[in-house]
Amino acid sequence: MSDPSPRQRLDTPRVSRSLAPRFDVEAVGRFSERIARFLGTGRYLAIQTIVVIVWILLNLGAFAWQWDPYPFILLNLAFSTQAAYAAPLILLAQNRQENRDRVALEEDRRRAEQTKADTEYLARELAALRLAVGEVATRDYLRRELEEIRDLIAELHGPPDTDPVEPSKHDGERRTKKTG
To answer: Where are the domains of the chain?
Structure first.
């Protein structure tokens, strides 16, 4: 039996049918960050300075078209409106950056804990290997033990035979010749 489509499933809620507009919070946040970044650039300050100078020159020089006479109240209103929108946008961008920094800090902390645990594990393994290597028989130790065994056998059987050694006919082995 095929899986019913999401519209037919009873355990899946339907999409909201409200007529209110839905906003993607992340899209709004990304847009506000772009604006906040632009407001903090030298390009923005240069453009704003040029606009203010042109505004003032046009209102001082063009007597017929003075839409904002000397106290430049309209210009002040534009700056106030800009500041009223810029401050929340900058705060929103700072909050988003703070959230990203917090997540990055938590990830760094988790990685540091994992690295510490891995380092401690490796240190314990290295210590165990050092102890194990300390218990491994070395060549000198084996040589000494074999010499001691040879000496013990020699003491039990008496002095070793000093028979002449004759070369064997097979594979270059040497065999001792025993006399009767």
So the answer is: 25-135
**List of residues 6+ apart from 106 with CB closer than 8 A:** none
Q: d(Cα 50, Cα 55) in Å, to the nearest integer? A: 8
Torsion angle in degrees (nearest 10) through CA of 166, 169, 175, 178 = -70
Which pTM does this prediction carry?
A: 0.48
Place of tokens 């020699």: 154
**Residue 160 near residue 169 (C-beta atoms within 8 A):** no
pLDDT tens digit sequence for 88-141: 888 888 898 999 999 999 999 999 999 999 999 999 999 998 888 877 777 888
Quote the CA–CA distance of 55 and 66 in Å, as a whole number: 10
